[in-house]
Design a protein that fits this description.
Radius of gyration: 19 Å
Number of helices: 12
Order of helices and strands: HHHHHEHHHHHEHH
Shape: globular
Largest sheet: 2 strands, antiparallel
Mean pLDDT: 82
Distance between the termini: 28 Å
CATH superfamily: NCX, central ion-binding region
Strand order of the largest sheet: 1-2
CATH class: Mainly Alpha
CATH topology: A middle domain of Talin 1
CATH architecture: Up-down Bundle
Low-confidence stretches: 148-156
Amino acid sequence: MDIVIFIASMTALVFGADFIINQSEKIALHYKISPFVIGATLVALGTSLPEMAVSVSASLHGSGDIAVANVIGSTIFNISLVLGAVFLIAKNINPSRDIFAKDSAWSLFPILIFILMAIDGKLTAFDGFLFLILMASYLAFLISSNQVEESHEDKSEKFAWGKASFFLVIGFLLTIGGADFAISSAGNIAREFGVSEWIIGLFLVAFGTSLPELTISIKAALNNNADLAIGNIIGSNVANFTMVLGIASIVNPLNVDLSAYFFDIAAAFILSLMLVFITANRLYNRSAGIVLMVVLALVIHNGF
């Protein structure tokens, strides 16, 4: 039964991703917003909802370790697995936006600020408000840096916010719901094979909450919309460290043991540096994808 649920949930993820990408592209086209900005705002915030749900729930139950580990793990998966898969699957990736010049700093700022805030071993409500201010600053930056493009909109079909909103909501429900059922069913399957609860919690939760980013980014890349795919990854990582941790620490202060998280934090930071290096040299190719996958394999190996 779990296998059937897993297949159904993955199907829901794919259809949900289609709805989100199609409507996001229509919104971008109608309002002359760059696909990268749409990916880093609307799509990124939507795909970060699973991380939000998991981390806030963990915070409410006093499980700060899960809340923080989920964010760090999701960041690792977003860059290594999601971006790596995009590079391996997409035939031609040539973003129109200069991501290195405009966005590379935002790949590093959130995790650096997180480390500085966590030096005292705790993320307080005050830290949470600072995180939310950083998120607001990021959104303001994206809006101000938007590249207005020539509209090639088909005038025979008028844009309707009602229809677009309906399909966006359906898309996010399918994507987030699919991710939730995929996590639970995959966990049950893993237990049947004798995989430990610790491994399931560490890797399946982080992987599961990254499934929306994975599905949407791959579908976008296959549709020759690399800007939206990469924007979704960077925007999701910023949202994880600012909005998700911010709200979770406001709900309940989070205890953070940097020494216990050293390897995972170092992996997330190194992968963020790799993302900056890739964008600086425009290494949007299969070789970069293979390297990212190798790093992911090393992280998983260390976890086992």
